[in-house]
Amino acid sequence: MYGRKACQLVKELASGEKGQLTLFNIDLIDQVIAECSQHHLELQSLIRKMQEQGLDVQTSRNADHYGALIHHLALVRNKRCLMAYVHNRAEVIQSLIWKVGPILPQQIEERLSHSEEEYFKKHSSALKSYMSRLELDLTVDMVPPKDPYIQVRVIDDIGEGIVLSDDKTANFAPHSMHFLKRTDAEQFISRGLMEELTG
Amino acid sequence: MEKYYDIDDIITEEETVSVIFQKAASGVGIDPSSETDFVEVGSKVEVPFWLAHELQLRQAISVNVPTCFNQKTRLEIQADSACVDLRSRCPYFYEFGCKIASTVGDRTIGFLLLSAFKSRYKEVLTKAHTAALTATSRFSMILTKEETSLYEAAQSSMAAFKKWRMGGPRFQRASVLGRKRKSTD
């Protein structure tokens, strides 16, 4: 049935957890585009047939007209599915910078297509230049903290010699605990490398 | 048009309906029973809703009421709406019902949807707040997509309320990274 593959593509978006990215399915997209080209060819041949019979393409309503109409509708439908696929992924990618910061974790990066990576880079550099013009970091937590420092535990390998905002370096060995400035810790927590300790 | 990029809307419109062609159409392979690429007048074909809707507007076809809104389902909903498995009938029962009602011109579908939703909604809310997680899996199997999102919304708002009351860490691992945590050892 027409438009089945395109709908599969959209279903792939829906089947994942909300806000999660799946692997960019270039194979299925190519198949849908091939289906579109096929529709286009058949549409053209039907129109040509009508012209050869000397009919007015605009007004005549014969079998060829309805055939062409069905191909046209299938094309429009496929376009909508493709657009929705790309659009919804782009929205998730835009939100990434707010959630995980300007450096993408590898597990996300490998699911993006090349142009999506480019989009992420451009979006984050645009945001960065806007924030530097405002002289305000917009990506920090919206709720004012009660204490500017928090206690955190390192749960993943971060690496040594991370320079913090007060120009000191810290050694974040796994499972070590630290007392850090909130703003320093935030990006590590959101990337899943540290967890906040309470109580 | 405001729903152009809406995933749920797109999937709803993929739902098939059986239609009868009033006009012939050539060069299309949508009728599996015919051997040529030609759809005769009067042939009965299953087509997705997005196609049926547009063809109906041009009076090329007439649309039959889909099976998920037939008399049998209606009777079941009247009997005990909370236990009817709507998901297997049509995962977007309400959205699809709204769309199909204007297409087939059946005014009773609206009342059916309203009464089904009203009685099931109560059940969804109470279960979302009270039932334990293990007991809900069977219940959530019969919910439509719309009801599932309501159910999840109720649960997450309850969780947010509990978190607010008890306090907890302000920062969390970003949800895009997924729930599963790879072991680092």
From TrEMBL, chain A:
Q: Which residues form the DNA replication complex GINS protein PSF1 C-terminal domain?
A: 146-198
Is Hydrolase set as a keyword in this record? Answer: no
Among its keywords, does the record have Nucleus? Answer: yes
Keywords of this entry: DNA replication, Nucleus
* Coiled-coil ranges from the UniProt annotation: none
* Localization annotation: Nucleus
List the InterPro entries hit by this protein, alphabetically. Answer: GINS_A, GINS_bundle-like_dom_sf, GINS_Psf1, PSF1_C
**GO biological process: any one?**
DNA strand elongation involved in mitotic DNA replication
GO cellular component assignments: GINS complex
The record places domain GINS subunit at 48-134
What family does the Swiss-Prot or TrEMBL record give for this protein?
Belongs to the GINS1/PSF1 family.
Q: What is this protein called?
A: DNA replication complex GINS protein PSF1-like
Automatic annotation (TrEMBL), chain B:
The source's domain of life comes to Eukaryota
Q: Start and end of every DNA replication complex GINS protein PSF3 N-terminal domain? A: 5-55
Name a biological process GO annotation: mitotic DNA replication initiation
Q: Which UniProt keywords apply?
A: DNA replication, Nucleus
Q: Where in the cell is it found?
A: Nucleus
Family per UniProt? Belongs to the GINS3/PSF3 family.
Q: What is this protein called?
A: DNA replication complex GINS protein PSF3-like
